[in-house]
């Protein structure tokens, strides 16, 4: 509690003096009520005298936080809490600093939970609940044996795992391509068949028109379709430029 000024002390002592000088003329219950009332007034007076110091500490802490001196800002905020431990806004600011700037989820959770205890329906309550869940999850996933890794270390390991996974996927992709190059496709097999030939589809071609071109009749379009099931998606709409295998028999 901050000290009162000399004039304030004099006034308070004068009031107590009056009460004590007349205490014999006042009943015991009345005297108790007066003393209790004066005590409340004294505490309220001291509380008002704390306000300028508390406000200055918060102002200085805010300035340090803006300038990037986060350690000093935390020190000033925590000093302000010594006078006002129930200041929810200070707990909120400390939680943010520990969480975002100091990479210290443990202390962040402490101050976020203090905020919720003091102001369960406060302006930041919804956000704080989400911060607590996120930080608790971060702590759980950062445990390695009996040691707790920093968030930076956990992030580094996670990135390394993602890189290794990508490299593994790339290696599998290269192996697949290599296998495709060494294994003849169904189309290649058909092209190598002595009893087949190829034709590049032109604009306006249909299976019937291609059948007429090669077999002098449109009735063999089904044979062409059967030989090209793997490349023809829609028999009624051929794609210009695609290569079809035309069976000889």
- CATH architecture classification name of the largest domain: Alpha Horseshoe
Helix content: 55-70%
* First-last Cα distance: 106 Å
User: Structurally, how many domains make up the residues?
Assistant: 3
- Note the overall shape: rod-shaped
pLDDT averaged over residues: 76
List keywords for this structure.
10 helices; Serine Threonine Protein Phosphatase 5, Tetratricopeptide repeat; mainly alpha; single chain; two-stranded antiparallel sheet; rod-shaped; 249 residues; 3 domains; Membrane-bound Lytic Murein Transglycosylase D, Chain A; disordered N terminus; 4 strands
Describe the 3D structure.
There is one protein chain. The chain has 249 residues and is mainly α. Helix 4 packs antiparallel against helix 5, helix 5 runs antiparallel to helix 6 and helix 9 crosses helix 10. The longest helix is centred in the N-terminal third of the chain and has 40 residues. It is built from 10 helices and 4 strands, in the order ααααααββααβααβ. A two-stranded antiparallel ribbon has the order 1-2. It folds into 3 domains: 140 residues, Tetratricopeptide repeat domain (Serine Threonine Protein Phosphatase 5, Tetratricopeptide repeat); 38 residues; 61 residues, LysM domain (Membrane-bound Lytic Murein Transglycosylase D, Chain A, Roll). The N terminus is likely disordered. Strand 1 and strand 2 form a beta hairpin. The chain is 68% helix and 6% strand.
């Amino acid at each position: 509690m901050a000290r009162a000024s000399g004039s304030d002390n004099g006034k308070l002592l004068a009031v107590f003096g009056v009460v004590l000088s007349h205490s014999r003329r006042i009943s015991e219950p009345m005297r108790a009520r007066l003393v209790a009332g004066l005590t409340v007034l004294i505490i309220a007076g001291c509380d008002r005298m704390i306000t300028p110091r508390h406000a200055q500490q918060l102002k200085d802490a805010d300035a340090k936080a803006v300038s990037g001196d986060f350690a000093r800002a935390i020190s000033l905020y925590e000093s302000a809490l010594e006078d006002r431990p129930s200041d929810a806004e200070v707990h909120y600011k400390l939680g943010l600093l520990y969480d975002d700037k100091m990479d210290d989820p443990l202390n962040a959770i402490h101050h976020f939970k203090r905020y919720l205890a003091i102001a369960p329906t406060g302006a930041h309550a919804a956000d704080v609940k989400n911060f607590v869940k996120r930080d608790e999850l971060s702590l759980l996933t950062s445990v390695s044996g009996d040691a707790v890794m920093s968030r930076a270390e956990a992030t580094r390991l996670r990135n390394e795992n993602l890189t290794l996974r990508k490299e593994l996927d790339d290696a599998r992709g290269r192996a697949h391509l290599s296998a495709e190059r060494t294994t003849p496709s169904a189309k290649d097999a058909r092209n190598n068949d002595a009893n087949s030939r190829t034709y590049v589809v032109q604009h306006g071609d249909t299976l019937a028109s291609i059948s007429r071109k090669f077999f002098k009749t449109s009735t063999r379009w089904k044979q062409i379709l059967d030989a090209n099931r793997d490349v023809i998606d829609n028999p009624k709409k051929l794609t210009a430029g695609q290569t079809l295998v035309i069976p000889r028999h």
